[in-house]
């Protein structure tokens, strides 16, 4: 979609980016509470510093979709950010090693440390732009983040990378989007 741009939130995130991330996340929790492990009632009480910490967590890359032509610094437009998705990098997932799914044909490679696992979290697209390709653009950019992430063995060879996500089984539109992007169940 030529009117939509995907923006990587830099770290440390600016105050403007923290505010925008806070607004879109709370909007997502209000609009689609079934899609998240967190709740609006809990997150609405987080401080600005809590949100800043969330966006700036080492090992996390957060993407935001916004409409072209809208100033990235203009905080007044509620719909400026119309989607979000975060990539959790392997350094964030080491303590979750056993919690992440492992496909049977990759189990040995994962156990031997030959595969780096990345996890997509926090995917949400504003209802007014669903079906317009925003989710696909976010996923495509998230996969680019994974591709660009260094992942080497001690011998300098590139490790294989695999991307996981968790989606509510009742959310058929999201499941269809992920299948279209090449994910398997």
Overview of this protein structure:
About 5% of the residues have low confidence. A five-stranded mixed β-sheet has the order 1-2-3-4-5, sandwiched between helices. With 185 residues, the protein is of the alpha+beta class. The chain has a single domain, classed as Aminopeptidase. It contains seven helices and five strands; from the N terminus they run βαααββααβαβα. The two termini are 27 Å apart.
Descriptive terms for the model:
185 residues, alpha+beta, Aminopeptidase, 7 helices, 34% helix, globular, acyltransferase activity, transferring groups other than amino-acyl groups, GNAT_dom, Acyl_CoA_acyltransferase
The radius of gyration over CA amounts to 17 Å
Low-confidence stretches: 71-79
In whole angstroms, the N-to-C terminal distance is 27 Å
What is the approximate shape?
globular
- Kindly report the oligomeric state of this protein: single chain
Strand content: 15-25%
**Helix fraction by DSSP (H/I, runs of at least 4):** 25-40%
Major beta sheet, specifics?
Answer: 5 strands, mixed
* Whole-number tally of structural domains: 1
CATH superfamily (homologous) name: Gcn5-related N-acetyltransferase (GNAT)
Overall strand count:
5
Q: How many DSSP helices?
A: 7
In CATH, the architecture is 3-Layer(aba) Sandwich
Sheet with most strands: strand arrangement: 1-2-3-4-5
Write down the CATH class. Answer: Alpha Beta
User: What is the H/E order?
Assistant: EHHHEEHHEHEH
Q: Structural class of the secondary elements?
A: alpha+beta
Overall mean pLDDT stands at: 84
At the fold tier of CATH, the topology name is Aminopeptidase
InterPro entries: Acyl_CoA_acyltransferase (IPR016181), GNAT_dom (IPR000182)
GO molecular function: acyltransferase activity, transferring groups other than amino-acyl groups
Pfam families: Acetyltransf_1
Domain N-acetyltransferase: 5-185
């Amino acid at each position: 979609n030529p009117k939509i741009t995907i923006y990587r939130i830099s770290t440390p995130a600016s105050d403007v980016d923290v505010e925008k991330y806070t607004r879109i996340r709370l909007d997502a929790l209000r609009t689609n509470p079934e899609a998240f492990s967190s709740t609006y009632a809990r997150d609405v009480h987080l401080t600005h510093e809590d949100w800043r910490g969330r966006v700036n967590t080492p090992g996390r890359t957060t993407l935001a979709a916004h409409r072209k032509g809208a100033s990235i610094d203009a905080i007044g437009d509620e719909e400026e950010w119309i989607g979000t998705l975060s990539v959790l990098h392997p350094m964030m997932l080491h303590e979750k090693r056993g919690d992440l799914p492992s496909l049977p044909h990759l189990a040995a490679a994962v156990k031997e440390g030959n595969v780096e696992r990345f996890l997509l979290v926090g995917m949400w697209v504003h209802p007014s732009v669903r079906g317009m390709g925003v989710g696909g653009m976010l996923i495509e950019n998230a996969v680019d983040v994974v591709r660009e992430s260094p992942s080497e063995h001690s011998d300098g060879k590139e490790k294989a990378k695999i991307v996981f996500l968790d989606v509510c089984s009742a959310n058929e539109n999201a499941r269809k989007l992920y299948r279209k992007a090449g994910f398997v169940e």
